Model the fold of this input.
Amino acid sequence: MHTFEPSGTRIWTVVGREGEYLVSDDPPLCTCPAFYFSLVRTKKRECHHLLALDLAKRHDHFSTTPGHDEEMSIFLSLLWGRNLPPQESD
Ligand SMILES: [Zn+2]
Done:
Protein backbone atom coordinates (compact mmCIF):
# COMPACT_ATOMS: atom_id res chain seq x y z
CA MET A 1 0.00 0.00 0.00
CA HIS A 2 1.16 3.49 -0.79
CA THR A 3 0.01 6.35 1.38
CA PHE A 4 0.20 10.01 0.47
CA GLU A 5 0.16 12.84 2.98
CA PRO A 6 -1.25 15.26 3.87
CA SER A 7 -4.35 14.16 1.91
CA GLY A 8 -4.29 10.69 3.47
CA THR A 9 -4.80 9.03 0.08
CA ARG A 10 -4.28 5.27 0.18
CA ILE A 11 -3.38 3.46 -3.03
CA TRP A 12 -2.97 -0.31 -3.25
CA THR A 13 -0.72 -1.92 -5.78
CA VAL A 14 -0.11 -5.59 -6.47
CA VAL A 15 3.03 -6.81 -8.16
CA GLY A 16 2.19 -9.47 -10.71
CA ARG A 17 4.27 -11.46 -13.15
CA GLU A 18 4.08 -8.78 -15.80
CA GLY A 19 4.31 -5.68 -13.69
CA GLU A 20 2.80 -3.71 -10.90
CA TYR A 21 -0.92 -2.93 -11.04
CA LEU A 22 -3.07 -0.36 -9.33
CA VAL A 23 -5.86 -2.05 -7.43
CA SER A 24 -8.79 -0.95 -5.32
CA ASP A 25 -10.80 -3.21 -3.06
CA ASP A 26 -13.94 -1.08 -2.77
CA PRO A 27 -15.10 -0.86 -5.48
CA PRO A 28 -13.10 -3.80 -6.89
CA LEU A 29 -10.81 -2.43 -9.55
CA CYS A 30 -7.53 -3.46 -11.14
CA THR A 31 -5.59 -2.01 -14.03
CA CYS A 32 -4.55 -5.37 -15.50
CA PRO A 33 -5.92 -6.76 -18.81
CA ALA A 34 -7.42 -9.84 -17.10
CA PHE A 35 -9.67 -7.66 -14.97
CA TYR A 36 -10.86 -5.77 -18.02
CA PHE A 37 -11.72 -8.91 -19.98
CA SER A 38 -13.43 -10.44 -16.98
CA LEU A 39 -15.57 -7.34 -16.71
CA VAL A 40 -16.58 -7.10 -20.36
CA ARG A 41 -17.07 -10.83 -20.88
CA THR A 42 -18.71 -12.00 -17.67
CA LYS A 43 -19.53 -8.73 -15.89
CA LYS A 44 -17.47 -10.00 -12.98
CA ARG A 45 -14.90 -7.80 -11.35
CA GLU A 46 -12.15 -10.24 -10.62
CA CYS A 47 -8.55 -11.13 -11.33
CA HIS A 48 -5.81 -12.76 -9.31
CA HIS A 49 -4.45 -9.39 -8.18
CA LEU A 50 -7.71 -8.64 -6.39
CA LEU A 51 -7.57 -12.09 -4.79
CA ALA A 52 -3.99 -11.39 -3.75
CA LEU A 53 -5.01 -8.06 -2.26
CA ASP A 54 -7.83 -9.70 -0.34
CA LEU A 55 -5.50 -12.36 1.04
CA ALA A 56 -2.78 -9.84 1.89
CA LYS A 57 -5.21 -7.67 3.83
CA ARG A 58 -6.76 -10.62 5.63
CA HIS A 59 -3.39 -11.88 6.78
CA ASP A 60 -2.00 -8.43 7.38
CA HIS A 61 0.72 -9.27 4.91
CA PHE A 62 1.56 -6.13 3.01
CA SER A 63 4.07 -3.31 3.15
CA THR A 64 3.27 0.35 3.40
CA THR A 65 5.22 2.95 1.48
CA PRO A 66 4.64 6.50 2.67
CA GLY A 67 4.95 9.43 0.29
CA HIS A 68 3.96 13.03 -0.18
CA ASP A 69 0.96 14.21 -2.21
CA GLU A 70 3.33 15.94 -4.59
CA GLU A 71 4.77 12.54 -5.53
CA MET A 72 1.38 10.98 -6.21
CA SER A 73 0.94 12.15 -9.82
CA ILE A 74 4.42 10.91 -10.71
CA PHE A 75 3.70 7.61 -8.99
CA LEU A 76 0.40 7.19 -10.87
CA SER A 77 1.82 8.19 -14.23
CA LEU A 78 4.61 5.66 -13.82
CA LEU A 79 2.13 2.86 -13.17
CA TRP A 80 -0.44 3.91 -15.76
CA GLY A 81 2.20 4.60 -18.37
CA ARG A 82 4.24 1.46 -18.05
CA ASN A 83 2.63 -0.23 -21.08
CA LEU A 84 2.82 2.82 -23.30
CA PRO A 85 5.48 3.00 -25.96
CA PRO A 86 8.49 5.11 -25.03
CA GLN A 87 7.88 8.78 -25.61
CA GLU A 88 10.14 10.52 -28.04
CA SER A 89 11.85 13.41 -26.38
CA ASP A 90 12.52 16.31 -28.68
ZN1 LIG B 1 -5.48 -7.65 -11.92
